[in-house]
What does this fold into?
Amino acid sequence: MSYNKTANITAETINPRVKTFNYEPCGEIARHAERLQEELNKNPGSRPFQEIIYCNLGNPQALGQRPITFFREVLSLCDNPALLNRDEAHLLFSQCAMKRARKIIEAMPGRDSGPYTPSQGIKSLRESIADGIAGRDGYPSRPEDIFLTDGASSAINLTMQILIRSEEDAILCPLPEYPLYSGSILLHGGTMVPYNLSEDGDWGLDIFEVKRCLEEARISGLTVRAMVVINPGNPTGQVLSVTNQEEIVEFCRKEGLVILADEVYQDNIYVDDKKFNSFKKVARSLGYTEDDISIVSYHSVSMGYYGECGRRGGYMEICGFGEDVMGEICKVASLTLCPNIGGQILTSLVMDTPKIGDDCFENFLAEKESILSSLAKRAKTLEKAFSSLEGVTCNRIEGAIYLFPRIHLPAAAIKAAKTEGVSPDIFYACRLLNDAGIAIVPGSGFHQVRLLDSFISV
Amino acid sequence: MSYNKTANITAETINPRVKTFNYEPCGEIARHAERLQEELNKNPGSRPFQEIIYCNLGNPQALGQRPITFFREVLSLCDNPALLNRDEAHLLFSQCAMKRARKIIEAMPGRDSGPYTPSQGIKSLRESIADGIAGRDGYPSRPEDIFLTDGASSAINLTMQILIRSEEDAILCPLPEYPLYSGSILLHGGTMVPYNLSEDGDWGLDIFEVKRCLEEARISGLTVRAMVVINPGNPTGQVLSVTNQEEIVEFCRKEGLVILADEVYQDNIYVDDKKFNSFKKVARSLGYTEDDISIVSYHSVSMGYYGECGRRGGYMEICGFGEDVMGEICKVASLTLCPNIGGQILTSLVMDTPKIGDDCFENFLAEKESILSSLAKRAKTLEKAFSSLEGVTCNRIEGAIYLFPRIHLPAAAIKAAKTEGVSPDIFYACRLLNDAGIAIVPGSGFHQVRLLDSFISV
It folds into this structure.
């Protein structure tokens, strides 16, 4: 592809912030995998495998996970509400789905799923979600605190856009980190202050380590505005204990930090001794209101047992920001008009699933449990496999859908990587892709080790 | 709502760029309209009208426009591909929709509509869109130049994020302007350089006026990177002549400006003496390739006869940027993972509609023509009504779905506005809302007059 030299739009002349970050799950290895797949399509048999197994992104339906029938039925009906008036529809859709679709459509502006909605999302759907949150936590939730978004990633980007004023504004993030955070912080002109999770301590979060990082950042002149906590952990798979969460709440309250709680894996927990507790629930159970601590909780339809990544549905619940800020967030959201309606509907379904007595309940539950037990089984199988491999160590997976093993490469491999001019983890990931057709993300893609103890800023 | 004083997240402490812009179509009048509607729901009869008529946003389905059956059938089937294997589905869906849905699903990763797609969008859908563009223009289009997006607004925001490096970078925009442009430019830290459309000359675009603005901007030390042209015009409803478009192409080529061509109203033209020509077609017909001029064309599923605003589908076709820039755009897009799948599918449908011989063709055509003739009729009715009102003048509407009348208020009204401490246009819009239930956007919301001849920057 050539380009027009007069306008001179090149990588050297665009917004320099764009060049400061990488998002490896969609980065070089992923692109190489796509090229390999095209090569394989043209030339089957040219490699010792038939197709690429994409493990570079949490994308369960791309790896064969089936969608929940109830969700898809409701979406299908809401897309085409004319079906709700057709007798034959009963042959194809459950009663339960038709009832729910009717309820959703009736509460929509214009009684159809076509118009722009308010930028914050459709009110009736936000009400269902608030009820779902309240039911989950045992503490009230208000629809006006909920912003529907095109997946959690849009919500995270919007938050960074609101919080970051200059590169002196910093956000505490865990390492290894889900690189959406560093990417978004750098793109919006801020500074990421990493805190280390302990690989030797089951990816535990040590509040003294966070405190040390906060203090160092402050000494460097940074204003730390918020702390990101991903629970269950991405990409590390740990689940925080309530005691640990209480420490985090106390710490953030005392230090005046907003908790940015990435809670998108709340339905993915595989061990009996841990359960999910939202940060809001933990804060409320300590007696703290939104006057004491600000918490933004992110959720999405992409993970859990739903796995509806491409639908781009999600929400953030914002507790403790001023009303004027909520108005400003709405204004920024209105620059993309509104979140997509299918995603909005699906988000409400995930937070308000079929109940006992609904005709589709048995089927819904069976599908849900089958997916969750399959995920748990595969998590354990992988954990066991990694632990039995020579030169590989791996922490226990408690939740989320990832494992983050440490691979101890032999000296010869490290030397070969050096000869090729790449880091050993990238060398390994490329070999795994080329020889076995498995696409993964090298550890450095999560800024493990490489960025340890350094601030990342533009 | 109270807020947490420790973290101190208030309108005074957030990103100051957020406070520099307004997006009036979703602004104060729209919020007041929503409050009024709620009041009316509780207290029917409390006002001399039953419900608010929302004319503040191009949102046709909210005003009763019906969706195209074929589009909704395909979406409904793609949401629930299991239907494609059910005999009973033939009772509810046209052959044509089932065939298309099958084709779309078969080309999808994982043969379902659930997974994340590539950040640029699904390749097979981009191929259909490229074919549609090539068919429309008579010049080739490449799928690798097309980025699928969550509506045109996401594409516009992404472009600004890429092009703007600092407030010295400027973008030429028409006045009256669709305020998404100023909003996005200011939010991303750039400067908007307005050029005036001529109200006395049917909202014509005078290239000497644009040249004058460019020169003034350069004298002020600004680097002007691009020129926004909205054709058919939003909010002004004019359609550019080919001669005028040729002048713009020559001007931008000579001055090294990217043409940002907002072409979302390409299917909305109501006069026989004008037709839509894309800027790319005009440039190619002058013999210019992407080596000579860079053009980004935006399109969306929200307008035209489709009106599927809430679906958030759209694309941009980028011609003339370097390949490295395309990679960087992909990277920024990957921070929100991918555009929503429903929107992607719908965008491909809009660019590849049923053909003669398809079983649904007659019905599709009838629905399309009925919507377009209704839009044309209403446009003419409104134009006539405005022209016959005392104190109102209005240019001819040629395309898009808006009229931008000038309202000459009597001195008493201007005085009353002054007493209330608001500008006369806002005073008028509030009275129209309170007394007649009609929500509009005051002229200043499009920066008409108020910002004439001044640069808008942070």
